[in-house]
Automatic annotation (TrEMBL):
Top-rank taxon: Bacteria
UniProt-listed Pfam families: Epimerase
Source species: Acidovorax delafieldii 2AN
Name of this chain's protein: UDP-glucose 4-epimerase
Catalytic activity: UDP-alpha-D-glucose = UDP-alpha-D-galactose
Length: 348
């Protein structure tokens, strides 16, 4: 592969993961060359075989850990990447409370090692996976990018620290091109049902849990709180189809090509749906019952969280297109075709 700032090779860290794999598909379909850098700590190499089958294109794989400088130097030089889309990270909020050192090491130290390697290689274009979690407890809704930043758990703090690092790096060297994308709640799957979300153990997130109840892997859903100040008492979130989210990364890369800059944008739909609305939409899409029980609130949860998506429309020319019915249909298509998820390379 050619090495230059004109390169159309994108190094995708965490490219075998849920959002990364969908983004690889969109990148390949759009004509980019894709090199994945992943240690498969939360994914399976089988994902990449499926991405290749879906697109009829080859994915170059660098198996490695983002904390390994030598492995990163090799991947950047060998792939000839002109830009990095950085998904690799640990993402379980509850786990981060119990294992903060592991989270700071993997997410913060790993990103620092990546930025150093990029700097050495002269690759200064980066799209980073941030999260709506950097807004902390919403002070006002919808959440605009100007909302004060705060974090309420170690996972969120890793995202906030990385965002600050990126802003500092751009401040010191304005030739960097950095897009910070703040995802709301990614759900759904590729329309083929060949790739999708495959959480380890008991899912923490709502959609995979609901999907596993619908397919019969779990008996019923616990709804964490029925007494929030929302129309039906259950929590409101801004669910966004993972393919819309993936396409937002391509728009961010295009925008970075226009000039050196550092920006942060929300990737959400702007609409909040309640847990009960999700349950009903999923029942409709799957034709299966999703039994539930109202349980007590989950610690750390907020009543409502949804985006103001206007800045992404203005800056990137991007808006989410797929509605809730489509999110549930595609999640069900994936879940029903792959009731046990991907085959794991190693037992987890
Ligand atoms: P995921 O766990 O499915 O994917 C992450 C990938 O990174 C996995 O393939 C994993 O093996 C890899 N990885 C982790 N640590 C690594 C390391 N040290 N070296 C190399 N590879 C490593 O998660 P996802 O849902 O696809 O999330 C991708 C990114 O988006 C993460 O940074 C996450 O924090 C962020 N994000 C996710 C959500 C969400 O709800 N899924 C929301 C907001 C932000
Ligand atoms: C959604 C709603 C729950 C599970 C988390 C992270 C956030 C971001 C996205 C990475 C809430 C309710 C859930 C269940 C339920 N990740 N729920 N029963 O909490 O909005 O965001 O994932 O950056 O940082 O915190 O998503 O899917 O866990 O919950 O009732 O079994 O579903 O209470 O109202 P959340 P979620």
């Amino acid at each position: 592969m050619a090495s230059s700032s004109e390169s159309n090779v994108i190094l995708v860290t965490g490219g075998a993961g849920y959002i990364g794999s969908h983004t690889c598909v969109e990148l390949l379909v759009a004509g980019y060359e894709v090199a994945v850098f992943d240690n498969f700590s939360n994914s399976s190499p089988e994902v990449l075989a499926r991405v290749e089958l879906l697109t009829g294109r080859r994915v170059h794989l660098y198996r490695g850990d983002i904390r390994d400088s030598g492995a990163l130097d090799h991947a950047l030089a060998d792939s000839g990447a002109g830009a990095v889309v950085h998904f690799a990270g640990l993402k379980a909020v509850g786990e981060s409370v119990v294992q903060p050192i592991r989270y700071y090491d993997n997410n913060v130290v790993g990103t620092l090692r990546l930025l150093e390697a990029m700097s050495r290689a002269g690759v200064k274009s980066l799209v980073f996976s941030s999260s709506a979690t950097v807004y902390g407890e919403p002070q006002s809704l919808p959440l605009t990018e100007e909302h004060p930043l705060a974090a309420t758990n170690p996972y969120g703090r890793t995202k906030l620290v990385i965002e600050d690092m990126l802003r500092d790096i751009h401040h010191a060297d304005p030739s960097w091109r950095i897009a910070i994308l703040r995802y709301f709640n990614p759900v759904g799957a590729h329309a083929s049902g060949q790739i999708g979300e495959d959480p380890m153990g008991v899912p923490n997130n709502l959609l995979p849990y609901v999907a596993q109840v619908a397919v019969g892997r779990r008996e019923y859903l616990n709804i964490w709180g029925g007494d929030y100040p929302t129309p039906d008492g259950t929590g409101l979130r801004d669910y966004i189809h993972v393919v819309d989210l993936a396409q937002g990364h391509l728009k961010a890369l295009e925008r970075l090509q226009t000039a050196a800059q550092c920006f942060s944008v929300n990737l959400g739909t702007g609409t909040g749906y309640s847990v009960l609305e999700i349950v009903r939409a999923f029942e409709q899409a799957s034709g299966r019952a999703v039994p539930y029980r109202i349980a007590s609130r989950r610690s750390g949860d907020v009543a409502a969280c949804y985006s103001d998506p206007r800045q992404a429309a203005e800056l990137l020319g991007w808006r989410a297109e797929r509605d809730l019915a489509r999110m549930c249909q595609d999640a069900w298509n994936w879940q029903s075709q792959n009731p046990q998820g991907f085959t794991r390379a190693e037992p987890r």
